[in-house]
Amino acid sequence: MLKWSLAAVAAVVVIFLVVVALQPSDFRIERSASMKAPTQAAFAQVNDLQNWRAWSPWEKIDPALKRSYEGPKAGTGAVYAWAGNKDVGEGRMTITESRPGELVRIRLEFFQPFAATNTAEFSFKPSGDSTAVIWTMTGQNNFLSKAICLFVNMDNMVGGMFEQGLTQMKSVVETQR
Known about the structure:
The protein is of the alpha+beta class. The protein is 33% helix and 36% strand. Strands 1-7-6-5-4-3-2 form a seven-stranded antiparallel sheet. A hairpin with a 3-residue loop joins strand 4 (90-99) and strand 5. The termini are far apart. The mean pLDDT is 89.
């Protein structure tokens, strides 16, 4: 009887490991919002990492968040590092590409609670007196991330934070008009 129970547990573990291994390695999370503001106003909120304090949803999670900035104030080479509580962890963002009014590409490195390196992009598309802002994050899932994604919908969780951030950015840029 014990032999059959152990065999059944082993089979379940093997099936779980196979299911995890078959999950996609690549991920992409994307959200967008339309803002009644010039493209440059929205672009400036993203391109100057110090402006993120006004609209980034992660900034409000830990009131004691430690921040540091390096490099130029804005644009390619600007760096923002943070260290916070267990909900925001520790990491670093570096702007790797900045095309005024078009695109900001960021290397996003997480150190705690899990190590990961992803790419975040903000693209800006003018439309009359409004701007469409598209926020995406792409990366690779390691085995542990694939297992977590079986139980936690990362698109909903991170995408929901993107939606909050875009809503808050919209409020900032539309109030500046």
